[in-house]
Specification:
With about 500 residues, the protein is an alpha+beta fold. It folds into 2 domains: about 20-380, FAD/NAD(P)-binding domain, CATH 3.50.50; about 395-485, Rieske [2Fe-2S] iron-sulphur domain (Rieske Iron-sulfur Protein). The chain has 11 helices and 24 strands. The strands form 4 sheets. Strands 3, 4, 5, 6, 11, 12, 13, 14 and 15 form a 9-stranded mixed sheet that branches. Strands 1, 2, 7, 8, 9, 10, 16 and 17 form an 8-stranded mixed sheet that branches. Helix 3 packs across helix 4 (about 85-110) and helix 4 (about 85-110) packs across helix 9 (about 355-375). The chain is globular, with a radius of gyration of 22 Å. It starts with a helix and ends in a 21-residue tail after the last strand. The mean pLDDT is about 95. It binds flavin-adenine dinucleotide. Flavin-adenine dinucleotide (FAD) binds near residues 225, 286 and 356.
Amino acid sequence: MNESYWIASSKHNELKSLDKDINVDTLIVGGGIVGITTAYLLAKQGIKVTLIDANKIGYGSSGRNTGKVTSQHGIIYSKISQKYGDYKAKLYYGGNEEAINLIEDIINENNIKCNFKRVDAYILAQNENYLEELKEEYDTCKKLGIDCEYYETLDLPIDSKGAIKFKNQGEFNPKKYLDSLLKKCIELGVKVYENTAGVNFRKGDICTIKTNQEKVICAKNVVIASHVPWYDGKNFYFAKEKGDRSYLIAAKLEKDIMPGIFLGVEDKGITLRTCEEDGRKLLIFGGGDHKVGQCKNEGEIYDKLKEYAKEKFNVKDFKYQWSAQDYMSYDNVPYIGNINKKEKNVYVATGFSKWGMTGGTLSAMIISKLIIKKESKYEDLFNPSRKGSYLTTDFYKENLNMTLNYISGKLKYGSDHFPIQEGTSEIVVLEDNKRYGAYRHFDGTLYIVDITCPHLGCELTFNSAEKTWDCPCHASRYDYKGNILEGPTVKPLKRYGEGKNHIKINL
Ligand SMILES: Cc1cc2nc3c(=O)[nH]c(=O)nc-3n(C[C@H](O)[C@H](O)[C@H](O)COP(=O)(O)OP(=O)(O)OC[C@H]3O[C@@H](n4cnc5c(N)ncnc54)[C@H](O)[C@@H]3O)c2cc1C
C-alpha cells in the first residue's frame, strides 16, 4: 500500500494493546486528531482518560491528509448561510478560527516541532462555470465579516479564473503534530492502547465496550472518535454521510510558487500546497476524488496527477503517493456532540468533509466542554441529531446509488480463473458456488477472501491503486488479506476455507 509523506517520514513508537478488563472514567475510541486532542483537553482539566485505537495512533486520515489548517473549506459559507442563516454560518467560521488558534497555542505551549506556519488560504475556480458561485461565496463571506479578498487571477502556473483569499490561516505536518500531542497526553496520565478495537457496545449509565481481544472496558463517558462511527447509536451516520477518497502526490519542487494553500472549487477540484522540511521543498498536490469503492481506474489516478504536476509545475522527482478518505455530510456541517438524543454520556465527531484538522480540533473543544460543563455554544449548530441535516437531493441520490450498488454487486458474475498477473485481482466463483475476491500479490502469492462486506452485506470492489477491497455502499475498506483498514465495519473478511463472513447488522 502507498504511504503518506507525513507517516513515511515519521518514526512510530509502538504502544501495547489492552490485555485486561478495565473500568475507566472517559474512554476515547480512535486516535486521530479528534481522539488525541479530546484526550489532551480533558487530561489538562484533570479528567482520567483512556484511549484505544484499532491500529496505530495517527495512521488514519489524520496522518494522510494535506495538512492545511484553515476555516476556508471550499464554497460553504453561502450554503450554510442559506440553509441555517447568517448567525450559524458565522458561528461555523468562528469555531474553525478558534480551532486554528488552539492548534497554534498547543504548538507554542508544548514547543511542538511540526512546521506550523501561518499562510493565506485560497479557493480558486479553474473553470468559468464556477465563477458565479465563487462570487456569491465572496459576497457572503464579506457579509459575515470574514477577512477575505477577491482576485481575478492568481500568479500560479495553473488556470485560475477567480479566487478568494482568507488571510492568516495555517499549514503543518499533521503527523508530527499528533505524535507530539500524544506524547504530551501520556505525560498527563492518559492511558493509550494500540491494536485494540471497540467491536461491541452496550449503553447505560456505565457503558460496556468489548474489544477485538475480548477484553471489557466499563466507562462513564465514551467518545466515538473512530472517523466514521463504528457504534452509531441508531443515528445512521453511515447513511447521513458518504465516504469520499482522494489521492495525493509529493514531488521535489525545483522552482518556488507563490506562498499559500490552494483548493480548486470544482467537483473533483485540485488541492495543493508546498512543504519545506529537512532542507528540501516539496509540492503536495492532489485530486481524483471519487466515492469509496466506485472508481474503475484508481490505478490511473496517480499517473494523471503526476502528468498534470509535471506539465504545470515542472516537477519530475516524485517522492511519495498516497490516498485517504473522509466522510462528507450533506449540509457541509460535521456531526459533533451526543451520539443521539438519549445517550447523554456517549459523544461522536464525524462528517468533516475533508476539513478535520480544524473540524477535529473544534470537536475536541466541544466534546470536552460537554463532558466537563455539560454545555457548549456550538452545541446546536453541530448537533448530530439536528433536523434536516441530510434531507437534500444529494442524500436521496447517494442512497439510491447505495441501493443500486448493493443490487448490482449481487448480480455481478464471477470468473472461473484466478488472476495471473501480479498486483491484479479477479472476482471468482469457487466450488461452493460462492463468489470470492482473489488477489495475486507481487511475490506470486494468491489471497482469496469472502468479499461480502460484514458491515451490511454489500459486495466489495477492488481498488487497484491501493490493492484493497472497498465497500461502494458505506466506505469500509480491507486489505487484500481481509484485515480492516477503515470502518464502519468491525469484522475482518474471512479467507477462503474459513467459512462465510458473518454479516453483522451493526445498527
Ligand atoms: C485526501 C484528504 C486530504 C485532506 N486534507 C485535509 C486538510 O488539508 N486539512 C483538513 O483540515 N482536513 C483534511 N482532510 C480531512 C482530515 O484528514 C479528516 O477529517 C480527519 O483526519 C479526521 O480525523 P479523525 O480523528 O476523525 O479520524 P482518523 O484520523 O481517521 O482517526 C480515527 C482513528 O480511529 C481508529 N478506529 C476506527 N475504528 C475503530 C474501532 N472500532 N476501535 C478503535 N479504534 C478505531 C482508526 O484506527 C483511526 O486511527 C483531508 C482528508 C482527505 C481524505
